[in-house]
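We modelled the chain as a single entity of 315 amino acids. Its sequence is:
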Amino acid sequence: MSFQIKEPILVIGLGGAGSKLAIQAKDALNSDCLLISNDSKDLNSGIESIKVSTDSVINPSIQLIRGSTYKVADQIKSKISNYSTIILMTNLAGKTGSAISPIVSEICKQTDKGLVSFAIMPFKYEKDRIFNSGISLKRVKENSDCTIVLDNDSLLESNPNLNSKTCYEIANNAIMHIVSSLTSLEISNQTNILTTSTDGQSMEESLRDSLKMLYGNTSPNAVKRSILYVVGANNIPVGVINSITNLTGGILGESSSQVDMTSSSKSKIVILSAIQGMTKFDKYDPLGVIPQENTLDWSQSECSVDHKLDLYQLE
């Protein structure tokens, strides 16, 4: 099944990276925008925003930010009440995105809003962020009608010479290609893996890197449907497009692949693949490999709340 985008649309950006993407998405979709963060630097004075206060704590934990977000839950409900579709932009490698994403997605589900979530996952060397990103992604997927995941780590594995800034730029550009097509293409209401390549490659090399990135996230058997975006198709010979289309159909299956042509000054391949089954992100939580029906979990995400109880330590 595919998810149907309905207007009016609200784009929500969480944290620094999420806010930057949300502002770009707002312009691409001609929609409204809401920014949420515990850091004032992430909020744009010209765009509607909600500040999550952690009071006097300068370096709050993820759990404290999450607990503080519940205090502004009514504000978030009020802001999204007049919209049919919510598009959530979040970087789960960041402390703010990882903390707030489960709460915002939970509110959207409780208020029966259509939710499309874009989630960026951390690099492998960011070991202190991997566990929390996996926990947050699990919650976001449960609450979303459609989840689109881009893994920074698999992008870096395909291109080890890239610096982190360039990886972020490539990831953001790939996300914006999907955002721009949301109102015209059918997006599967499953977990979707977004893969791409660097600029300046041939189409065959770009396709190879995109597929390598895809199969670094999941097994070939888990891929059920793919959309191949040929970016800058107006600059590519028709014969080359036909060649990579045939090659993609042979790898992913003719009946499960779709091709979309987009105009751009730079040429590359972007692939959006619907996944049914396990991904590498399920292993970020050591208990994530256990079937859900065999586990017990809190209905709400773990959080820290200061109740200001006057309790004395006994020795």
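As a brief sanity check on the tokenised model: The mean pLDDT is 85. The two ends are 61 Å apart (CA to CA).
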